[in-house]
Each structure stands twice: as structure tokens, then as C-alpha cells.
């Protein structure tokens, strides 16, 4: 293993922290730890596991961290590398990048949102190979989107927070939504916790013929149509626990969503992908639940390659 | 004038076609022609004027064309350079790039949406200098957005069509909207023609205290908040005739819009720009109504510089 560079990847999610050591999805050890509500305590076993991997496999060339957010991605900022206004109180202001810098001093570190990381994973090894502009959406505990534009993860004022898109309400639906900031934004209506709050049943156990599935697919379609109008992505990868929740079946969720996205676009945007019914446009992640942690490895690889001498003269 | 390269720029809008010859906004001749409903006839005086400029000032090194749309921006496509599904019937499938290629054979041509062109103009000479990711919005006959991401205009499946974002309806507002595709999308509710349809009065003549201004600002704020969530732009430039329509006053329109964008974001996204009340975040175009045609000159300049030998080794 000593001739190929070894990387560490960390996907910090609101529920669990997934880590990996390796070079790519085919050569990767993987472990999971609960996120809990105390970041310092939660990161102890993560760092221990990564150190163990170094003993077993050799020294990491770089680490990549994809974190739930919002996070501060601006290197000059005093809060760079921290989680900011999350509803998850114990994690607010958590210095997640700093914790890994202290534990693994002196190696390059890539840092981005969990969803931008997942997008990078799907770009390098998954359902978005060869596409320069696409969106990776995850629907689970929250809803988020990672966006690649011109082959790079999109940053800006902060980073995209597409789960908080505002969408029209469907007639007759009085559920107020659960987002503490916006009530009935996309995440407030369609996240796993929103489905449970609406129905009293978890998404995993919600019967396939429950009306809430139709509502979830239709609201999701309005949000995806908004992403198509705002960004014109070449593909939308739709991951997370909600689209693959048990009783409905992922194929049915995708079929409902594709149909209602076409309805929401109303024939305005013309493209062969739309004419084909979106079957190869709105797709599940190829790396499945490993998109995020594989993306963290991709982030590590980028951070490392930026330090290589030939890259001093490249376009990056 | 012979030592500086001369460019031609064409901004093809739904109402008028603006053209320019020159190198930058400080050195630019400008003319306007009606778009009408027959593209072939409409382009005759445009091409005549440009040829006249060549006689007066020298040969163009390149042309840049920013067109209303939707347009086909994919060079390998058979309909590249054409307008596609516009509601403006006479212009549907108009081969706008082809017309200029036939009239000015052999010189490089840049082609993009009118709003991407305007974004390029503001990026090079206006309110977005030094920003790699921002949005240029125009609200007039239609609503559109040009998007720069990582320093380049964003293309993708097609191109952004942010005027067709779907937004929540405000309580008590039963106006159905006028978009032939979506009814009450942003453009269907807030374009100039929508304001006239709602009130029976043109935006220019609508009294400053008319309720429709508040509705227009609040719907616009919901759409801009969606762009912030989807794209996280570093700035939003808001141009077009609606924000500067007569009786209300542009400052009031911007003040109402900024306030309601902050309300719509609900404190979720944290950034110094938001803490400052968005005064330097949602701004008018510095090039005013010349943003588009200046952007067309910028497009021409890019098309020309891509043909220069040293650029064979650059990052483009």
C-alpha cells in the first residue's frame, strides 16, 4: 500500500460521523460514530479510529472533511472551519476543522459542506462522472444540496442552502412545516422529521399509499424545478434516506418526482433530458450512502494535489 | 483608434435590440432598433449600423451577442445560437447567431443569454468587479437572471431561467399571474406586463403608495431569497425597468426588497452582508441600462482573446 497515497475522509452529519481511510471507494476502510450533542466528545473516537488506520495502513497525505452546516468556508474568516447557525445546539460554533488540525498537524486538509463533498464523490466516482455542472441533493434529517458549477463546488456568500427554498403550498395542505427558521420551506415540509411530524409515522414505516408520499414528491418536485430554473444543472442526484425509505420503494418515489418535476416546469425548458422523462436526469447516487465519505476522500485528494509542485503553475 | 481592438456588441431583447461598437463603456457608440415580431427584418438595420461602424472606426475583431431566450448555448447542438421556446412567436427558432455569422464571416463570435452578458458587463466594468460568484437579475418585459459562478457565466442543461422560479403566494392575493407556462411564477407575478395586468396601470405610472408595489417587492424578495439559498451569490444586481419605475423611486423599491429578503431568510444564513441590511448586497447595476450591451462587448472581447495564441496554454 505504500506506493499509493493514503487519505482520510470524514463526513460529519447531524446524526452520525462516517470516516474512511483509503484512496477511493474500491480501497476504503469505513467506520461510523454517533454525532450526539457534544462535538468534542463525539470527535474523540473518530480521531482514535483514524490514528488506528494510520498505524495499520501508513500516514495520511491529507484529510478531507465534509460537514453538515451551515459552515464557514471562507479561509480568511475567524470562524473558518466552524459550524455556524445549525439548529443542533451543541454543535453551534463547533470548530470541526480545528479539531482535526490539532489532531493531525502539518498535513493538508480539505473542508467543505457534507453535500458539496458528496457531489465531489459522485463527480469523481459516481453518477456525475464527466459532468461539470450538476446538483447533489440529500433528503434525510435535513435537506441540503451540493452544487458543482464549472467542475468545482459552488461557494459564495456562504454556500448553497437549497433545503431552505420556499415553494408554493399545495391546495388544502395546512401542515405548517417544522423548520425553526422558515416553517414550510422544502426542508420544513419534506425532511424525514417533517414526514414524521406530519403523519405520526417515520418515513421508513409510512405505508406506500399514504397521501404524505404524494405531497412529499410534489413539494420536492417544485423545489427541484426551482433548482433547474436557478442553476440549469446537467443532472440532479437525489440521495438521502427519504427517497429510499422502505415501504414506498425508491423507484416509485423517483417516478412520482420525475413526473411532477415535468409538470412543474410546464414545458418551458426544452431539452432532450426532459423529453426523455428525466429518467437519466433525476437519478439516485451511484455511491449510495457512501457518497459523502467518498467525497471527503476526494476533498483530501484535492487538498493534497494542490500542494504538489506541478500544480503551482496550473489553472488552480 | 487603430491600435486598440474594436468590438461589436448586440443585446437582443424582447422589445429592442441595442448595439454598440467600441472597446469598453467609455469608448462606445450605441444604437437601438425595435425587435418587432420578424427577426429577419429586425436584424437588417442592426447589421447595417454595425457595418457603418466598421466603415467609420475599423474592422471588428469579434462580435458578442447577448440574446433574450431561452437560447441554445451548446455548440455541438444543431440549434446552437437559436432562440428556442420563447412566448414571442415570431422569434421562436430564430437563428440569431447564424444571421451575424453570415453578415460578418470569419470573425470570432461570443454568444450567451442577454442576462449572462449583462452579468459579464457588470463583472468587467460595473457593480460586480472582483466578485467570482454573483447574480444579475433584470425585471422588465420578462424576468431573467445571469449567473457568474467561479468567474464564468453559468451554463448547464440549458441556462438559468430564474424568472420562472415558483414562490409561495401571499395570503389574500388571488391574481393568477400571466406566465403562459406557469401562471404565477416570479415573472408571471412581477414582470412589467404582470404589474400592468394586475393593476390596469403600467409600472411607470403606478402610484408610489399602490399596494401592488408591496406585493411586487415581497414576491421579488421570496425569489431573491430562493436564489440566495440555491446559489449563495456574493452579490445580487437588480436591474431592468421595474425596479427603477417612475413614481415609486428606485431607492424605495430597493429598501422594501432588502427588508423583505431579510424577513424571508429568517435569520438562517449568517453573513456580514446580511447583518449590514443588504445595502451592499442587493444593488442596482452600475452600467444601468447599458449592462447588456456592454456585456455583449465583453463577450466579444472574450471570444477574441480565446483566439490569441498565448491563450492556448491558459486555464481557458
Give your account of this protein's structure:
Two copies of one chain form a homodimer. The first copy, chain A, has 316 residues and is an alpha/beta fold. Chain A has helices at 39-57, 96-103, 114-125, 186-190, 192-199, 211-231, 250-265, 272-275, 291-305, and strands spanning 6-12, 16-24, 27-34, 60-67, 109-113, 134-139, 143-149, 152-153, 236-239, 282-283. A five-stranded mixed beta sheet of chain A has the order 3-2-1-4-5, sandwiched between helices. In chain A, strands 8-7-6-9-10 form a five-stranded mixed beta sheet, with helices on both faces. The radius of gyration of chain A is 19 Å and the shape is globular. The relative contact order of chain A is 0.16. The model of chain A is unreliable at 312-316 (pLDDT under 50).
Topology:
The structure is a homodimer of 316-residue chains.
Chain A: E1 6-12, E2 16-24, E3 27-34, H1 39-57, E4 60-67, H2 96-103, E5 109-113, H3 114-125, E6 134-139, E7 143-149, E8 152-153, H4 186-190, H5 192-199, H6 211-231, E9 236-239, H7 250-265, H8 272-275, E10 282-283, H9 291-305
Parallel strand pairs in A: 1-4, 4-5, 6-9, 9-10
Antiparallel strand pairs in A: 1-2, 2-3, 6-7, 7-8
Helix pairs in contact in A: 1-2, 3-9, 6-7
Keywords:
five-stranded mixed sheet; homodimer; 316 residues; 10 strands; alpha/beta; disordered C terminus; 18% strand
| Major sheet summary line of chain A | 5 strands, mixed
Widest sheet: strand ordering of chain A: 3-2-1-4-5
Quaternary assembly: homodimer
**Derived structural class of chain A:** alpha/beta
Amino acid at each position: 500500500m505504500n506506493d499509493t497515497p493514503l487519505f482520510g475522509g470524514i463526513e460529519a452529519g447531524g446524526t452520525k460521523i462516517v470516516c474512511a481511510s483509503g484512496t477511493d471507494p474500491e480501497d476504503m476502510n469505513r467506520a461510523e460514530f454517533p454525532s450526539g450533542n457534544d462535538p468534542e466528545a463525539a470527535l474523540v473516537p473518530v480521531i482514535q479510529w483514524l490514528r488506528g488506520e494510520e498505524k495499520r495502513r501508513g500516514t495520511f497525505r491529507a484529510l478531507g472533511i465534509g460537514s453538515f452546516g451551515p459552515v464557514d468556508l471562507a479561509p480568511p474568516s475567524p470562524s473558518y472551519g466552524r459550524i455556524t447557525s445549525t439548529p443542533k445546539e451543541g454543535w453551534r460554533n463547533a470548530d470541526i476543522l480545528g479539531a482535526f488540525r490539532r489532531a493531525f498537524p502539518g498535513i493538508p486538509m480539505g473542508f467543505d459542506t457534507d453535500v458539496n463533498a458528496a457531489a465531489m464523490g459522485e463527480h469523481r466516482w459516481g453518477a456525475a462522472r464527466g459532468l461539470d455542472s450538476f446538483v447533489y441533493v440529500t433528503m434525510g434529517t435535513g435537506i441540503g444540496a451540493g452544487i458543482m458549477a464549472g467542475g468545482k463546488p459552488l461557494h459564495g456568500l456562504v454556500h448553497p442552502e437549497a433545503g431552505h427554498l420556499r415553494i408554493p403550498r399545495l391546495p388544502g395542505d395546512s401542515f405548517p412545516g417544522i423548520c425553526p427558521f422558515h416553517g414550510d420551506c422544502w426542508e420544513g415540509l419534506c425532511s424525514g422529521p417533517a414526514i414524521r411530524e406530519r403523519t405520526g409515522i417515520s418515513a421508513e414505516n409510512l405505508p406506500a399509499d399514504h397521501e404524505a408520499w404524494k405531497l412529499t414528491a410534489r413539494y420536492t418536485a417544485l423545489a427541484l424545478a426551482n433548482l433547474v430554473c436557478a442553476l440549469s444543472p446537467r443532472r440532479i442526484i437525489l440521495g438521502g434516506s427519504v427517497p429510499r425509505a422502505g415501504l414506498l420503494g425508491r423507484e416509485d418515489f423517483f417516478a412520482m418526482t420525475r413526473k411532477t418535476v415535468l409538470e412543474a416546469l410546464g414545458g418551458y425548458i426544452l431539452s432532450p433530458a426532459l423529453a426523455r422523462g428525466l429518467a437519466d436526469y433525476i437519478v439516485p447516487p451511484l455511491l449510495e450512502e457512501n457518497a459523502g465519505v467518498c467525497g471527503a476522500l476526494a476533498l483530501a485528494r484535492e487538498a493534497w494535489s494542490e500542494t504538489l509542485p506541478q500544480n503551482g503553475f496550473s489553472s488552480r
